Request: fold
Amino acid sequence: MAHVKLKDLTKRFGRVTAIKKLNLEIHDKEFFVLLGPTGAGKTTTLRCISGLEKLNEGSIYIDKQNVNDRGPAERDVALVFQYYSLYPHYTVKQNLEFPLKSKIRNFTGEEIDRRVAKAAQTLQIDHLLGRKTDKLSGGEMQRVAIGRAIVRDPKIFLMDEPLSNLDAKLREILRSELKGLQMNLGATFLYVTHDQVEAMTMGERIGVLHKGKLLQVGTPHEVYNNPVNRFVAEFVGTPTMNLFSGIIHDGRLIMINGKIEIELTQKMLNRLKGFEGEVEIGIRSEDIAFSDENGVEARVYAIENMGMGKIITLELGDSLLKATVEAHVSVDLDTIIRFQMNQEKLHFFNKSTGENLRAL
Amino acid sequence: MADIKLIDIEKYFGKNYVIRKLNLEIKDGEFLVLLGPSGCGKTTTLRSIAGLEEIDSGEILIDSKPVQKLKASDRDIAFVFQLYALYPHLNVFENVAFPLKATKKSMQTIEQRVREVAKVLQIESILNKKPSELSSGDMQRVAVGRAMVRRPKAILMDEPIGSLDAKLREDMRTELKRLHIEINATTLYVTHDQVEAMSMADKIAIMEDGILQQVGSPTEVYDHPANLFVAQFIGSPIMNILDCTLDADENHTLCFLGEEATAIRFSKSLFQHIESKGIANGQLALGVRPEAVRLTRKPKENYIKSEVHVIEPLGPYDIIDIKVSGQHMRVKSASNYIQNPGEAVWIQMDEKRTHFFDKESGTSLKF
Reply:
């Protein structure tokens, strides 16, 4: 069992509040991703859980035990950084043995061998055991870094952007490897990243952190389809969600200086609970479709071929919006096309607070 | 603007080749992206064209004139660096105008040129600001503006948006591409990011180990990669590469993945084609992009069984990591269609979008 609970966690550095009253539960055997931009407080949260930082207020529970006063070694958590935290002059085997040789643990040589062999097998690095770590590729080093956590069989794996220094291809491979590994081990992972693709693809649940505040916790599907506010909407998903101003009046939505006018369905009006006035409208690129006769006219401003599909940037008055289409769709630059938005997929945000008006 | 031609360019540091027999043409008004991993020789190529590096052999022609003996300053080329090399004590207007100050142009001409460039780059509202007050995206625009204001023969850029955050990079990509269409400047752009290359380039030149691997439009290099390296460097999610053996019956090519007993059936001509290339079965790799694999939750004729390993939601769609006879493969699927790791699924590949490679040389066997 490894269950983590953060209650009103607050951490200040001097006058700066890095984390403000953070409440979060990570379930046993869950792959939880803490996502946010640089400076959001993700790493600080991780360091507080590991015991490397002391909190100012609040409590941290691991398996229902308050661990506030326990040191890092007593919390039984393993921290994995980027791969350069390995000892370069040691072999892979020595690097893997290192965390087990601590006096607190008092493992027999036999037990150490058994654990190292098992971790090496899990990560498929058995053939590298005799090699010095500075002779390894980036992907191999990253596996060893993870191996150093696995041998300890900790309650929780805390991972701080472990893939961020690797090239795109390797990152993609290691992403599914890591998720597969977490499932095989049946371990609890708390994974910190600024990369929304990593969060979406690996997390069972994602917590979006911004300026020390937890904005939303949900499955990738929930966070993507029902962002609680504008920040989450823009931070998750690529291309970034299109946003522009509009007005809701008399059951109609008018946006982009009157260039688009939509009669809202009753279902949509119900969700908006009678809201009238200025709003910020969001729509994802895949929810805009080209149409024949009906639809709004726009000029094709740019075409980006992404291989699998294309991103078409449309110009409408002063606004630009991005639509994604399949690779075989062909449009010409600077021509006028017509498009429609999938009304079901419109997001409405409060103009001043950024809050999603139809979120639960 | 001008065209640039590289003929048999070679460059070595000591005994090590950095560039080997490079032949490449950048046509007038073309946006060519030089793409490759770090250390592939792309930046050295760029610097050689700019005159910041000397080449050991070969010719560099700008508008058909050899320039390899000319100083950097005489090549009439503008270089946009990776770093935001702006003068901190000058405001945006003065930064953009700076390259013109030395040309003895009238104040009126300078003003007009700067305003023109500022309009295109949408930096009109910040002309009075100092670099320290600018966002990194705006700084980048100013840097591009400073290159454009001279109306050079070509613009060279070395990862100019590499250090921006994801959203800004996305916007800058679109803007830079649009900018190119409007100004039609011959542009050579260096990056390691295939998304930037695909989305902006008229043509992509892919380099690895100092050797040019393929030159083509984004569609060409994506749909018809010349070799394994290009196949896996271009595209995200990356192309699946699997071991396979081919056989044939009366009417079909039978493609076996690993130990799998069931074959995927392709047209008869495929087997004949691969056989004619003289590639033995053990040397064969199959390549297929995640979107070229059909996936279903029910058994279907001519589909092979596999098992869901990991589900990776991306928002608009999911990527499903499946296991087929001991090999991993990633497949694109509608969002939420597959929900449980471990469940059985059936797959089939689109023959037109299935590639075969010689594992030893890496060469594509399709063409």
